[in-house]
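Input sequence (214 aa), recorded before submission:
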Amino acid sequence: MWGNGMKIESINVRNDGYVHCKSGFYHSQDSTDYKTEYIFTTGINWLIGEIDSGCWAVSYLLSMYKWRPKDFILFEKPEITVNDTVMSLEELSKYTCYMEEKIYPLYSTKQPIEKLVMHGIKKNKLDYSPEEIRDLFHMDSERFTRPIKAVGHEIFRAMAAIGYVHNKQVFCFPWLSKKRYDAYQLHMPDLMNILESLKMIVIVPRGQEDRNNS
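Predicted structure, token format:
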């Protein structure tokens, strides 16, 4: 479906700096350093760690640097290769999306999901109908006609559907505690399976298991 013929299969990242990560649930001062190389490939890339352990910082860097540069203090230019070829953050941002409805521009709108999906289909001349996209992401018919903020636990399905028709290939999640991640119940595992079947790169920073229950 990619009009420019490029399919991202791997991303390697090294970065040194501070990142003020934000989502609807949390804010955190996070950081990364050149000692750590992050390698992401097609499928689900779990980054398990604390909220300030660097896993959120790299997801936020790849998806939000273009939109909120003041959230970053970078000591060096990030080293990024895509499919083993050097690429800038600005260029990579064409393919990434941050799965957060409050601050990522594609999602921070009051328009119905169905309308946003239709816009992506027309813009990119895709051979899909909105109904086929709704079915692909297993969204409820009635919720598909609502704005993103009004779909409850289907919110990540909605954002993924919109990102997909806007030719996004790298889905960067905000950090979620294990408890909050699990609160989405079966929606999250099902969405991960869908994105993996579509050969997307999915970056999921998530909290560790509750040690009290281990």
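Checked by second reader. The first helix runs from residue 55 to 64.
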